[in-house]
Design a protein that fits this description.
The protein is α/β, with parallel strands linked by helices and 441 residues long. It has three domains: 263 residues, Type I PLP-dependent aspartate aminotransferase-like (Major domain) (Aspartate Aminotransferase, domain 2, 3-Layer(aba) Sandwich), CATH 3.40.640; 92 residues, Aspartate Aminotransferase, domain 1; 57 residues, Ornithine Decarboxylase, Chain A, domain 4. 33% of the residues lie in helices and 15% in strands. The protein contains 14 helices and 15 strands. The strands form four sheets. Strands 1-9-8-7-6-2-3 form a seven-stranded mixed β-sheet, with helices on both faces. Strands 10-11-13-12 form a four-stranded antiparallel β-sheet. α4 packs parallel to α5 and α6 runs parallel beside α7. The termini are far apart. The chain binds pyridoxal-5'-phosphate.
């Protein structure tokens, strides 16, 4: 029986199990819906840590859809999927190459696995102030220098920029390196020809998708995908790693929501919705270009991520004005640009509202954009595992240069580290630090 049916069938049973709430809100009646289907693994229900029944079937269906060897449902976000992927593939002191624009969960994974990191700098676009692709040639030169076990990268980026995973995967295979692609923002890629191919289809060994980001599912829903071509690792080893990090009381409503999400994504209705959304965004773009709005529009770009700037106004001011005057909140902004995230559930009316507001925004003709500078190549003095939980002291910012930071500088979103514990403080970082700086003693 499907997870959804299990949850929605009529219950005659008297259940003395967790959760104690008896499927009714006692103290937060506003959230009635949350309680109604909130069961644990009672008799007849399946177990996420060792599925044999409904969850196994639903995962199998998702795996067929995504053309994977195994797709695992995750109720704690791509964060947990990334940790489990890393814990499976990385043993202590294995060398790991990580693209610097990876989400902080990858840094956390380095602490938990005791992998030894080298950072790889992605290409960047100074005009927009964003990291772009991984250059396969530069990657190849780096892989020739060291025997890495794993390369971890993000594609699409937060702003929707896709790397050529097919080429990157060939390079990794040639050098016997496992490829993990954080595809948290690419959950819709399997479901429209107007979007790039999935990382798994292009040869990644492992990928993760956050279904809550763009696929219309509830917060925390995600999947971990294992390629049919992965060498030397069984699905069981990934299940074991997931079991290290996942709660022993996973939310059944979230599991049912993941199942329902795939049911929807494979429907004609969803394809129509995604393709229709992309068409609407294209129309909006061509109309707004006449109003001084410029869009990031490279061929490797995911059109559902609307990255724009408007002549005569900084990204920060544009973001503030849209928020204060039009009640419109963006996903992310920088000095030059703003990012609007769309996906399943983004209505035409919502896009209209953004479009009309962008037309009306007042600008200053003398304002000029400046290129954005990027963090320097990190100087790793202590590996993440060795920098974790250390004694620290405070020094004045003026005396902190080249000392080892005990703190992260991590603007969120996007959750990409500008400085991590264990790294030397460079001149570039000083602008981001308070007067008293924590350094490792
Ligand atoms: C690129 C990237 N990877 C992973 C994550 C973590 O995803 P989740 O929130 O599903 O744990 C995020 C969240 O912002 C992200 O942007």
């Amino acid at each position: 029986m499907s997870i959804i049916k299990l949850l929605t069938k009529k219950f005659e049973r008297t259940i003395f199990t967790t959760p104690s709430h008896n499927q009714k809100p006692i103290f937060s009646k506003e959230y009635n819906g949350l309680y109604k289907h909130d069961f644990s693994e009672i008799e007849g229900f399946d177990n996420l840590s060792n599925p044999v029944n409904s969850i196994l079937m639903a995962q199998g269906k998702a795996s067929d859809i995504l053309k994977t060897k195994q797709t695992f449902f995750v109720t704690q976000g791509s964060t947990t999927a990334i940790l489990a992927a890393m814990k499976t593939l990385i043993n202590p002191i294995d060398k790991v190459l990580v693209a610097r624009n990876c989400h902080k969960s990858v840094y956390n994974g380095l602490i938990l696995t005791a992998g030894m990191v080298d950072w790889f700098m992605p290409e960047k676009d100074e005009k927009w102030g964003i990291y772009t692709t991984i250059d396969p040639k530069k990657l190849e030169s780096t892989l020739e220098l060291n025997q890495y076990k794993v390369f971890i990268m993000t594609s699409p980026t937060y702003e929707g920029i896709n790397s050529n995973i097919a080429e990157i995967s060939n390079v990794c295979k040639k050098h016997d390196v496992y490829l993990i692609v954080d595809e948290a923002h690419g959950a819709l890629y399997n479901f429209s020809e107007k979007l790039p191919k999935t990382a798994i289809e292009q040869g990644a060994d492992v990928s993760v998708n956050s279904l809550h980001k763009t696929a219309g599912a509830l917060n925390q829903t995600a999947v971990l995908n294992i390629s049919a071509n992965i060498k030397n690792f069984s699905s069981t080893s990934f299940q074991n790693s997931l079991n290290l990090f996942q709660t022993s009381s996973p939310s059944y409503p979230l599991l049912a929501n993941i199942e329902a999400c795939f049911n929807y994504l494979t429907s004609k209705e969803a394809k129509k919705e995604i393709d229709g959304l992309i068409d609407e965004i294209e129309k909006m773009k061509s109309e707004l270009k006449r109003f001084g709005v410029e869009f990031y529009d490279e061929e490797n770009h995911d059109p559902t991520k609307i990255l724009l700037r408007k002549n005569g106004i900084s990204g920060f001011d544009l973001s503030d004005t849209l928020f204060s005057e039009f009640n419109i909140e963006d996903e992310l902004n920088n000095q030059n640009s703003c990012l609007y995230l769309t996906g399943i559930g983004t209505t035409k009316q919502k896009l209209e509202k953004l479009k009309n507001a962008l037309k009306k925004i007042q600008t200053n003709p003398s304002f000029e954009f400046e290129n954005i500078d990027f963090q320097p190549y990190p100087i790793v003095k202590l590996q993440p595992v060795n920098a974790y939980n250390r004694d620290f002291i405070y020094v004045n910012k003026n005396d902190s240069l080249l000392k080892i930071s005990n703190k992260m500088i991590l603007p969120y979103p996007p959750g990409i580290g500008l400085l991590y514990p264990g790294e030397a403080i460079q001149k570039w970082h000083l602008n981001y630090l308070n007067n008293d700086v924590e350094i490792i003693a």
